[in-house]
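queue> holo job accepted (adenosine-5'-diphosphate)
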Amino acid sequence: MRIILIGPPGVGKGTQSSLLARTLKIPHISTGDLFRWHIANSSTLGKAVKAHIDAGELVPDSITELIVAEGLSRDDAAAGFILDGFPRTHDQARVLDAILETRGDKVDHVIEFTLDNADLASRLLARGRSDDTDDVIRRRLDVYVQERAAILGHYGPIVTELDASGSVEEIGERLLSALGARILQSLGVRSARSGHTVGG
Ligand code: ADP
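queue> job finished
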């Protein structure tokens, strides 16, 4: 299963991606984590992306696409993956589709995490990452509005909205049932509750 999680900064995608990856036994590929790893290790790539991240701006597509292509080429990503923080632009979405097409695959599900601004602010405050300062958060929220439009425009019919309020466990359960419902839908099962099926 190939899943994309999108949502504003602080919404908890990273936490849920890790849990879901463990449940589904597929890798969790987070561009933010990959970039932070490179920055922590002072690699050439880390040096190239640091200023963008510190300012709350997107890293240029060319760099981001390279790092994702590398992540997706891992053997354990052949059967599926969870992408967290990618794609964030229309160009990135097109590149992802092209990579998947060469192996006869496509994105199966896009989950959009939603949460009100007050809850987002308190989660970001609790996390306290170095790019979680007021100005940078505000910029990342603005950038997210554009990102969201690009992703919804590209993947519209396969996007499912997920209420990201509540505890980690509650959100995790909601995420699994949202994915379950989508899988049943794609198999032509009309309603999980009624048990009535349509199609094949
Ligand atoms: P958040 O979702 O809280 O913004 P991430 O860890 O996903 O945090 O990303 C942190 C930063 O890494 C972003 O603000 C951006 O600078 C950079 N980044 C991550 N993913 C991408 C991407 N797909 N394209 C461009 N920049 C990215």
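queue> The first helix runs from residue 13 to 24.
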